[in-house]
Write a structure and sequence with these properties.
Elements: E1 2-7, E2 10-13, E3 18-26, E4 33-39, E5 46-52, E6 56-59, E7 67-72, E8 75-80, E9 89-95, E10 112-113, E11 117-122
Parallel strand pairs: 2-11
Antiparallel strand pairs: 1-3, 3-8, 4-5, 4-9, 5-6, 7-8, 9-10, 9-11
């Protein structure tokens, strides 16, 4: 089992910055791929950014140049700059051990989600 706990959300004016954190605990050895997703009211959950050990990072077009994903051991971060009202959403941390191809990770059948943290950007 993996537990993910997000923090760092809040209310910010357009143009401002926030830094989200996601602390992972439990069986973390197969968490080579982690990412941030968001879900705005009435919209589907979408990938914001992801990182895979040894393979780099991936960003949604809408956040490229403004958001930076990083990781320090079992803590995932999302630095969000130049925030826009369209960035308002609940942000979720995700860990997907199914994407780890090492043989000892083959038993994982689920990915894991945090509880979410609200980010609200006012205009």
């Amino acid at each position: 089992q993996v537990q993910l706990v997000e923090s760092g959300g809040g209310l910010v004016q357009a143009g401002g910055s926030l830094r989200l954190s996601c602390a992972a605990s439990g069986d973390t050895i197969c968490m080579s791929t982690m990412g941030w997703y968001r879900q705005a009211p009435g919209k589907e959950r979408e990938l914001v950014a992801s990182t895979t050990s040894g393979a780099g990072t991936n960003y949604a077009d809408s956040v490229k140049g403004r958001f930076t994903i990083s990781r320090n051991k079992n803590t995932l971060y999302l630095q969000m700059n130049s925030l826009k009202p369209d960035d308002t959403a609940v942000y979720y941390c995700n860990a997907d051990p199914r994407r780890d191809t090492r043989w000892f990770c083959s038993d994982f059948v689920n990915d894991y989600w945090g509880q979410g943290t609200q980010v609200t950007v006012s205009s």
